[in-house]
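Hi F.,

I've been meaning to write this up properly since the lab meeting, where we talked about keeping a consistent format for the predictions we share between groups. The idea is simple: the sequence comes first, exactly as it goes in, then the structure tokens exactly as they come out, then a line or two of notes. No screenshots and no reformatting. I'm using this chain as the first example so we have something concrete to point to.
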Amino acid sequence: MKKMSKVFACAMSMALAASCITGCGSSNDSADTNAASTEKATTASADDAEGEKKASSGEGTVYMLNFKPETDEAWQKLASDYEDETGVEVTVLTAADGQYNTTLQSEMAKESAPTIFNIGNTSAAQTWDEYTYDLSDSELYSHLTDKSLVVNFNGKTAAVANCYEAYGIIYNKKIINDYATLDNAVVKSADEIDSLDKLEAVAKDINDRVDEINDEFGYELTEAFASAGLDDGSSWRFSGHLANLPLYYEFQEDGCDLIAGEAEIDGTYLDNFKRVWDMYVGTSAADPKTLNSGSYNAETEFGMEEAVFYQNGDWEFGPLTNEENGYIVTADDIGMLPIYFGVDDENQGLCVGTENYWAINAKAGQENIDASLDFLNWCITSDEGRDAITNTMGLAAPFDTFTGEFETQNVFKKDANKLMADGKTSVAWSFNATPNVDDWRSDVVSALTAYTDESGDWDAVKEAFVTGWADQWKLAEEARD
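Output, unedited:
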């Protein structure tokens, strides 16, 4: 498809994106498991919140509609603490799990509508365009460590991320640094792995010298990369997370919204996808012909120091460092690298995303807008707010105020923060634009499996990726109509 028509298709696709949003890719994610705890949250009813609102003091009031039920108790306490400290009334209503959009529509129709609310993507910003206040000159925006963690729409910064998740290549820095002392090692330390060229060379050399490394340092390595399982419990890491990279770079090249996507793609960066995939498979002990068997456990391979590299997300920090799981690795041993893609390695950060963006109601009246901005700024600068967000809610906040004792203890999130602070560009979660996500991914996995076990070729992967995208997008549009 011509690039000119692709950009036009991109502009037309934003409304469709809302029906295509997906999370980390699998209900097996630890992130999804954590979300299941939301049933225990204390959730106020809309009627109760409406009845509890007091008359404005003239200095503005705050009404926050909270997106995450599991954080309700912490937000209620923050609201109370802030009100005690400043005298400004703060009401927090937490929507029931899975009912946020319905609650938002209901509350926004009321005279006393939320002054702070959540939007998850560009399509939501389009829906609520008249209600989103431009945050580009706000103190909140100024504290962002990565200015890409916003939702831009209609010439304004419509919302600012309040937390994030990140994924990349988890690695064992202890093993790499030991390997680096060997004669003719590719790198002298783990810090030198800063490109796909370097990562490929290190992975191949480690894989070729597994026995030497074990004999020298007493490890029980079997491979460089943990198995790239193509079964249902693992394949989302590649049909979702790895597939994100060619989507991201193509959307970026086309000038398309990185989250909303576009109706047709060319697969411009699928050769890069192939290169990374071949590295995963070629430097692993797993049999390429049985990757879809479900017999591999990449987390265990990495946790037991059988593998040095493992593509996954920051939600793996808990399982890997939980003593009850019996893994050998410790928090001091591990870190996370970008999934270097051979496109813009020098500037690439981790794949960072969220569906949690704070927006301010532009129709709330200036005194309430100012009060709401002040409250959020207090949340990210005060000891009470930072402690609640980091330690009580367990979130990673993308603001430069979260340092020292308020920095997340998740080392993968620390790596994401450092890359942001160093000026690296976080890779957006462009896989959120995937049309009919389950069907598209299933076709990609089938083709990728055939390519890997040598019963098919790479052209079939391209066909599933590119033609399959256009077909599923069209089906999604027809279903929407």
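Notes:
Confidence is low (pLDDT under 50) at residues 1-5, 14-58.
The radius of gyration is 23 Å.

If this format works for you, I'll send the rest the same way.

G.
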